[in-house]
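User: Can you predict the 3D structure for this chain?
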Amino acid sequence: MADPELTPDGHFVIIKGRRWRATDPEIPPEQAARLRALLMAARRDVGAALRAEDADAQRAARARVHAAKVALGERGTPWWEQNPAERRERWQRGLDAPA
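Assistant: Here is the predicted structure, written as structure tokens:
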């Protein structure tokens, strides 16, 4: 799969003509892969909760999706506005969160 198009400043990716915040490029590859795995597991859990019509499980899974997206720098304070220590703390908090 080809890498998505980035805006000139590197802050956003363009997918199907829509702009989305890019993942923080300073997250080490191993940690970024772990965060993406947590994100995808949470997304699968959202789907399972929807199929089971379990509102509590859906709410919990969506909260985990949000936490992973924040840790990746795709939500919350923009990563380019954070200093290196804040960025590291953000993604480390995502890795330390209960699954």
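Residues 29-52 form the longest helix (24 residues). Residues 25-96 form one domain.
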